[in-house]
Amino acid sequence: MKFDRLFTSAEAGASEGVSYVPRTSRIINPDGTIVFEAKDIMVPENWTQVAVDIIAQKYFRKAGVPAKLKKVPEDGVPVWLQRSEADTEALASLAEEDRYGMECNAQDVFHRMAGCWAYWGWKHNYFSDEQSAKVFYEELIHMLASQMAAPNSPQWFNTGLNWAYGIEGPAQGHHYCDPATGEVLRSQNAYERPQPHACFIQSVSDDLVNEGGIMDLWINEARIFKFGSGTGSNFSNLRGANEPLSGGGKSSGLMSFLKIGDRAAGAIKSGGTTRRAAKMVILDADHPDIEEFINWKVREEQKVAALVAGSRMCNRHMNAVISACNPENHAELNGGLYQPKNNAELRSAVHMARMSGVPDNYIHRALQLAKQGYKEIIFEELDTDWEGEGYATVAGQNSNNTVRLNDKYMRALEENGTWNLTRRTDGVSVKEMAAKDLWDQIGHAAWCSADPGLQFDTTINDWHTCPTDGRINASNPCSEYMFLDNTACNLASMNLMRFLDTETGAFQVDEYRHAIRLWTVVLEISVLMAQFPSKDIAKRSYLYRTLGLGYANLGTLLMVLGIPYDSPQAEAWCGSLTSIMTGCSYTTSAEIASEVGPFPRYEANSEDMLRVVRNHRRASYAAPPAEYENISKAPAGIDPSHCPPYLLSAARQAWDNALEMGKLHGFRNAQATVIAPTGTIGLVMDCDTTGIEPDFALVKFKKLAGGGFFKIINQSVPVALRRLGYDEEEVKEIIAYCRGRGSLTNAPHINPESLAEKGFTEKALETVEAAIESAFELQFAFSKYTLGEDFCREKLGLSDEQLSDWSLNILEAIGFTHEEIREANDYVCGLMMLEGAPHLKEEHFDIFDCANKCGREGKRYISPMAHVRMMASAQPFISGSISKTINLPNEATIEDIQELYLESWRRMTKAIALYRDGSKLSQPLSSQIEGGLFDDLDDKGTTESAPVRVAQQIVRRYMYQTKRRKLPTRRAGYTQKAVVGGHKVYLRTGEYEDGNIGEIFIDMHKEGAAFRSLMNCFAISISLGLQHGVPLDEFVDAFVFTRFEPGGIVEGNQHIKMSTSIIDYIFRELALSYLGRDDLVQVKPEDLRGDTIGRPSDEIPEFDAESEEVIDTISEGTGADVPRSEHLHLGNLGGNGSTSAEVEETAAPAVADDNIRTDTSVRAGTMNTAAQAQDEAKAKGYEGEACTDCGHFTLVRNGTCLKCMTCGSTSGCS
Which one from 476, 486, 490, 605 is the annotated catalytic residue? Predict the structure, then answer.
């Protein structure tokens, strides 16, 4: 194939128009603690800080990169394209610690990927000459640097590590197919052939232990999950409950095995980072266990609710029974203390316990313990936290569940007919039911738990390019890849905004076509060079060579063009751009076939594939339904009246060319395109929107290079306003209405003049002004953490009692009214919406509508049905499907959900997933609903603040032992040294004779007197609590995940590698040592990465500088009588633990230093409770859940998955 330059020139090469500058990447927790930091990394100058952070934290190879390289000569390969490996002679001249390191230049990452693709393409004759290979290589580097396109994450992780650096590692059980012979071979090296595929579909047979059976599937799933990819399977072949077995027994049913797989998926962190694996479970609607499957998650959610409520009831009432048996309160009862007949308080407690459903056995147990002298029962109360024990106890939480519906069922539903559930073994009907009954169960389950989604089997197989070889039964977890079982797909997406001329509004079709051609070849070469997790997948990937090219940023493109997402014009743009993409991709596939041949199974399926291509072409011409071949329903074509003529012409020409080329040469790939979620790679490309989604909020919080955030209006808003004809002054005022002025100057009521009258100094006002830039609301800029407690006491006259109140609002406390604060907040921080903005015409409101309501007062959002219409406009031009979640408000009904499902089928989409706000027990309702919903029913009224109500839910009260348990004078324990965020910390423990912990000591190396003393006092208070009977796990639950500086990377502890604060680190360590809580520790960061599939043999381990010193010691007093801790878990710790003196009852207070500010160190206190953070996140347009990687409440829906807008982590497979 011949390639010409469009984005580069022969003189400038790949760096055409791109300059690289040194930047610092810091991933910072909301409280300011550092999670990751890389200094002086080279990146393209125009990249935002978010994109820099993503490539530095997630995509830079963290270890094993040689400092010196040499080329490996290879016959027939140009020198510039030859592989590289470590230059051992040159490395020998360097200090040992300088020989290997991490990638620190984005150019190196672009080079290793583009070079690897060009290398494999050259070796297998994809280029007509060396110049074309060079152009291919340089154009791709330019596109990556210019954020025009990006491959899926596994490519960034794995591609080119062996080609560029010579990195090798032991094989991991993968296979590949020899391109010349088609023979499946076992990989001999983990890196020579990368694993670039993100999406897998696997079959499962009705067999327990043999290859291809149930248990074999769990093994293959584990291999896929471990390396960060996702997989889906249709389980309809498995027999239902009570079906006969060959040995004479009866099957335990599908659900019993699904629960095993769910447990396995939950135990394997996807890519080593997230709790939930990316998994899809699909079941046909006629399976005998379909009803149980539909209601699976509903029932499991009910179990969580029962566990939470039951644990609270048991704790409350069992302790009430024990309290009623306190002899000090009932001395007059003598022997009748434990008899309900004689003890009225006990009788009442037992009665209330039984009325609340506490089992009689447990009531009796409480009485027995009371007789034995116990004063209370420690009964753990569970909560609805997704990461908590409640959800960990139940099943069904680690997959997306989907029901397969065919047109036979849908017709029965429309005609109020019946539906049969049939046995898998012999096809005999086991139940006849009304189709409407099953439909109602689906609607109710989706309303309650957001699952199941639906896939429309007939529609999917109508557009199947290879039906001769079998049906399409399943999809990947995000539902965009749908093809034969045991196949895989690698993804790439183009950033549509990079092809738009924002001045003229013209879409640059020629550049778009050029990019499509290049990236189709990239994905085809990726199939050629890849290794796969099983033999079947390797073979079928060779036979069919399915690709997944897509795009991102459609929502931003439409907003910039001034086109409402919910409009016929938007649908026409979407259809035409999608049509161009897939038509041109298939044309390129046919061009490749003319050079190297079509995919091996093309001849057997050629008639069907050409039929599908003809139907795609007919959709571009909006042909009447009668013209389509062998499809059950006609698609939505491109409406010429709403599509720009040049786009319509290009869309039709793309399919004219694809059909003509396909007839002549066949196609190299059985599928070419999908619309993927574009999660992390969307952030690398600085996309405001992902895939086919609209924007989720008008105001976003962008990251600063030095840490922290600043608030900006979406980049598409001012451009759209100018294109709509608003002048600069009007644009400025509209943006100020939405974003705020960012300053107190001229603000109503609360301004520098009024604050000066309240006692604010110039310095205090400067501090507040600086805090406003990143403040969500005005009150957050006026906090004791920003101003300092001394200032609040001395200048503002606030009392200690006020300062200790979690719900303190300083502006209210110094005399401003709610109305004054609201008006000032609107002026300074903005309303974060455009509804009611000055100058903005009402007819333009819908252009700026988002998926969610904007701000706290926004009422507008995109209609859920508009999402269905947009999917329907793209689906006729996609080989696979579309990953998208339709968001619904909490007030949506079951009928609303059923109507969306039905309309989706009618409009010929292949799948649909939706999410109703608050449908998951673990997800709180939006703040507008949650606040005060049941407060008027509370006996205490509504006087308590939201943080206090949250605190009351999580604080467990203990009746501490009245007598302190003394520690032995000579005791066991251990000392653990670590470096947390660059600060040395020494933790020492003291133990009782039975091995339980009784005291801790914390010492900081070279810390200020105030902080060091504070840690000492903290250790004393914890020790006193332990000696008075407070369980260690209560302290662990209270202090793990607290966030303040110093924090971040942990050195010197082989189990804990990251912490959010010193306190967080200490209680992670204690939890591991004394409670066995290995769920709170990590392994090395490089072992957690999705690209880690082996360790290079020459990788150099890291050592603490102190551990390299050789010190001769003489050990004394190590006889058998010396107490030894049983909790030492570090392999090379010497010594016998601590023998320090017992903690004293009192301690001198730490000396205060007025010159020391501890703003960030106390930020992890009680300023923002979880509920406040969730409310704030919801108002910003986020989902209201915390990211499991970085802790930020910045998760947004991303296709059928979740994506963090701060660190880029996703719960999906892209």
Answer: 476
Helix (H, G, I), strand (E, B) or coil at 175: strand
Helix locations, 1128-1212, DSSP H: 1170-1179
Q: How confident is the model at residue 1168 (pLDDT cuts 50, 70, 90)?
A: very low
Residue with the two structure tokens 């990211």: 1187
**Amino acid occupying residue 1109:** E
In angstroms, rounded to a whole number, what is the distance separating the alpha carbons of residues 1094 and 169?
Answer: 5
Closest CA to 1132 of 991, 983, 976, 987: 976
Whether residue 532 contacts residue 655, with contact meaning beta carbons closer than 8 Å, is answered with no
Q: Would you say 837 and 847 are in contact if contact means Cβ atoms under 8 Å apart?
A: no
- Selection from 704, 679, 684, 691 nearest residue 273 by Cα: 679
Rounded Cα gap, residues 480 and 670, in angstroms = 15
476 included as an active-site residue: yes
In the chain, how many H helices and how many E strands? Answer: 42, 33
> What is d(CA 450, CA 917) in angstroms, rounded to the nearest whole number?
9
Query: ∠791-795-797 over CA atoms, to 5°?
Result: 100
- Is 1053 in the active site? no
pLDDT in tens, 965-1014: 888 888 889 899 899 888 889 899 999 888 889 999 998 865 566 777 78
Question: Pick the catalytic residue: 301, 376, 480, 591?
Answer: 480
Stated as kind and residue range, the H or E segment containing 1045 is none
Q: Is 389 labeled as catalytic in the residue annotation? A: no
Structural contact between residues 322 and 469, judged by C-beta atoms closer than 8 angstroms: no
Q: Output the CA torsion 168→169→173→179 (10° steps).
A: 0
User: What is the rounded distance in angstroms from the CA atom of residue 681 to the CA atom of residue 153?
Assistant: 7
Q: pLDDT (tens digit, 9 = 90+) per residue, 939-971?
A: 444 333 333 333 333 333 333 344 678 888 888
- Residues 57 and 271 sit within 8 Å (Cβ to Cβ): no
For every residue of 922-976, which 3-state class applies, written as one string?
A: CCCCCHHHHCCCCHHHCCCCCCCCHHHHHHHHHCCCCCCCCCCCCCCCCCCCCEE
What residues does 460 pair with on adjacent strands?
none
613/658 Cα distance (integer angstroms): 8
Q: Residue 525 has which token pair?
A: 């070469």
b/e code 321-345 from CB counts within 10 Å (16+ = b): bbbbbeeeebeebeeebbebeebeb
Candidates 177, 448, 478, 1187; catalytic one: 478
Instruction: Return the minimum-mean-pLDDT range out of 57-61, 263-267, 353-357, 668-672.
Output: 263-267
Residue owning tokens 């020899």:
178
**Is the Cα dihedral 310, 311, 313, 318 positive or negative?**
positive
